[in-house]
């Protein structure tokens, strides 16, 4: 084993260290800083109190996404606190010369959807944002992770962040995925196996034939959910699928620059004998379409499975398990199939991209939305919305009884008006099923877009494979 | 924002023996709409602390007068989920200076340290005993000594060590702030950028 062997993570991290603090964290240079309305205002305020300017505004990209309404975006935001946050972002961006894609801008959308679709996200970069799902961008072979507001202020002030280097984990998934099993199911399966703290202290690299077989959008879904295992981020070495996706996008390198970057990107991979601090191996054939039954993303089972009985749990695990099921109104050992559903949410930085809407639309085509279902279909960005219209998906959706809303984070975290009412059940393509996440008292079951489609047309938890 | 210097103290503790306390429980997203950092303590653990009619929930520990103090003792995997620093702000603003658990989520831990809130990691066994001590005597006191990196259960006399990054320890003890340090590196950063081209 060569001592020189490095993981992909090491290579990118080490190439971005400006200085190593003795017995402390690294000063890590940040290539791209994405900001939004919720976690930036206090950082801008801090910067101003110090009399500082944003050091590299050209490497900073802003968009309001977390609390924007998903209807009537052409009008002023009705909710005053939300409006103030969005207006504050606009004012701060003007003052500091930061590129802002505001509401109604053709490039507006969820920050983790627009970064990749505009070609801002590129292999080998370091990317941060005051949002834990920044891990999404790791799908391109970049180091991308969520940060707090103090750290947002650090990046504003110096384009650097003080950060201890995490450990490295490899999660390898080999084999062929069954029909009806998507990237979302891989993510929920992994978290159900390693728990929501299994990745803590680590940065994941996903490898294996099942990972390679995923489209760029599938890879984004998987890397997006890395944080739900506790990991700071997840990454996938770039390959032809990656390069093909980036080529020609708005901010992608062009001409000679493209050739130069492409050559560099092709070298971005872990050395064969690189050592990881921990490794997991999974067989793609073991993965079923997944659904969660509890109040953290690790509490998931195959849709044809049952909620655990909890009999083999220790005292404190059992207490947490019972509390969770009580909140959900479920019982130990219940089967998931057939459970009543009230709401279906398609969207978020996890599953709000064009492929997700294609999959949902294809599934509901020629069928009808169940009467008991309220469905919110929220595109991840303006470009996704435009594409949905361009491909004629809206007509199919409307025929089946579904309406399209305008882009934003929406019911994923229910900061805007899109709140699942208390006690109601939602099958959601988002990333978190925490208590109250989708509205006070809301009960969330996380799943893929096709599982959500199956629930939308049957009105209950249904195995999508029955229709495929 | 410069942080308060961390000084050794003794205090009773508030027990929260729940695992995986996520950031949406610490402060729900609907309370993140402020553009200034103030008053977040009012909404700490909002949906556990208040009933639907906004009256205090007597079953929740923050509403039980027998518990008080600057130390929050919580079950494993505390602070999982979102990167919202509002979680650390709300705990600090409420009056806590230390959170003790057997396991913290990464981003929460960083956010806490950046705000003068000390996360103390103890063994699952030590944590279990802490809960027992507090349950037996809610007025039991504990000593937090950052200089020595020790936490002492004064009721039982049991002391435990905890890890903290040496740099962060210095920041907390002296009230240093990372940004003051980072801006001194600007020339170096500019040179680094040159080397990338």
Automatic annotation (TrEMBL), chain A:
<dbReference type="InterPro" id="IPR004430">
    <property type="entry name" value="3-IsopropMal_deHydase_lsu"/>
</dbReference>
<keyword id="KW-0408">Iron</keyword>
<dbReference type="GO" id="GO:0009098">
    <property type="term" value="P:L-leucine biosynthetic process"/>
</dbReference>
<keyword id="KW-0028">Amino-acid biosynthesis</keyword>
<feature type="binding site">
    <location>
        <position position="412"/>
    </location>
    <ligand>
        <name>[4Fe-4S] cluster</name>
    </ligand>
</feature>
<dbReference type="InterPro" id="IPR036008">
    <property type="entry name" value="Aconitase_4Fe-4S_dom"/>
</dbReference>
<feature type="binding site">
    <location>
        <position position="349"/>
    </location>
    <ligand>
        <name>[4Fe-4S] cluster</name>
    </ligand>
</feature>
<dbReference type="InterPro" id="IPR018136">
    <property type="entry name" value="Aconitase_4Fe-4S_BS"/>
</dbReference>
<comment type="function">
    <text>Catalyzes the isomerization between 2-isopropylmalate and 3-isopropylmalate, via the formation of 2-isopropylmaleate.</text>
</comment>
<dbReference type="GO" id="GO:0051539">
    <property type="term" value="F:4 iron, 4 sulfur cluster binding"/>
</dbReference>
<dbReference type="Pfam" id="PF00330">
    <property type="entry name" value="Aconitase"/>
</dbReference>
<keyword id="KW-0432">Leucine biosynthesis</keyword>
<dbReference type="InterPro" id="IPR001030">
    <property type="entry name" value="Acoase/IPM_deHydtase_lsu_aba"/>
</dbReference>
<keyword id="KW-0004">4Fe-4S</keyword>
<protein>
    <recommendedName>
        <fullName>3-isopropylmalate dehydratase large subunit</fullName>
        <ecNumber>4.2.1.33</ecNumber>
    </recommendedName>
</protein>
<keyword id="KW-0479">Metal-binding</keyword>
<comment type="pathway">
    <text>Amino-acid biosynthesis; L-leucine biosynthesis; L-leucine from 3-methyl-2-oxobutanoate: step 2/4.</text>
</comment>
<comment type="similarity">
    <text>Belongs to the aconitase/IPM isomerase family. LeuC type 1 subfamily.</text>
</comment>
<dbReference type="InterPro" id="IPR015931">
    <property type="entry name" value="Acnase/IPM_dHydase_lsu_aba_1/3"/>
</dbReference>
<keyword id="KW-0411">Iron-sulfur</keyword>
<feature type="domain" description="Aconitase/3-isopropylmalate dehydratase large subunit alpha/beta/alpha">
    <location>
        <begin position="10"/>
        <end position="459"/>
    </location>
</feature>
<keyword id="KW-0456">Lyase</keyword>
TrEMBL record, chain B:
<comment type="subunit">
    <text>Heterodimer of LeuC and LeuD.</text>
</comment>
<dbReference type="Pfam" id="PF00694">
    <property type="entry name" value="Aconitase_C"/>
</dbReference>
<dbReference type="InterPro" id="IPR004431">
    <property type="entry name" value="3-IsopropMal_deHydase_ssu"/>
</dbReference>
<dbReference type="InterPro" id="IPR000573">
    <property type="entry name" value="AconitaseA/IPMdHydase_ssu_swvl"/>
</dbReference>
<keyword id="KW-0456">Lyase</keyword>
<keyword id="KW-0432">Leucine biosynthesis</keyword>
<dbReference type="InterPro" id="IPR050075">
    <property type="entry name" value="LeuD"/>
</dbReference>
<dbReference type="GO" id="GO:0009316">
    <property type="term" value="C:3-isopropylmalate dehydratase complex"/>
</dbReference>
<comment type="pathway">
    <text>Amino-acid biosynthesis; L-leucine biosynthesis; L-leucine from 3-methyl-2-oxobutanoate: step 2/4.</text>
</comment>
<dbReference type="GO" id="GO:0009098">
    <property type="term" value="P:L-leucine biosynthetic process"/>
</dbReference>
<feature type="domain" description="Aconitase A/isopropylmalate dehydratase small subunit swivel">
    <location>
        <begin position="5"/>
        <end position="123"/>
    </location>
</feature>
<protein>
    <recommendedName>
        <fullName>3-isopropylmalate dehydratase small subunit</fullName>
        <ecNumber>4.2.1.33</ecNumber>
    </recommendedName>
</protein>
<keyword id="KW-0028">Amino-acid biosynthesis</keyword>
<keyword id="KW-0100">Branched-chain amino acid biosynthesis</keyword>
<comment type="similarity">
    <text>Belongs to the LeuD family. LeuD type 1 subfamily.</text>
</comment>
<dbReference type="InterPro" id="IPR033940">
    <property type="entry name" value="IPMI_Swivel"/>
</dbReference>
<comment type="function">
    <text>Catalyzes the isomerization between 2-isopropylmalate and 3-isopropylmalate, via the formation of 2-isopropylmaleate.</text>
</comment>
<dbReference type="GO" id="GO:0003861">
    <property type="term" value="F:3-isopropylmalate dehydratase activity"/>
</dbReference>
<dbReference type="InterPro" id="IPR015928">
    <property type="entry name" value="Aconitase/3IPM_dehydase_swvl"/>
</dbReference>
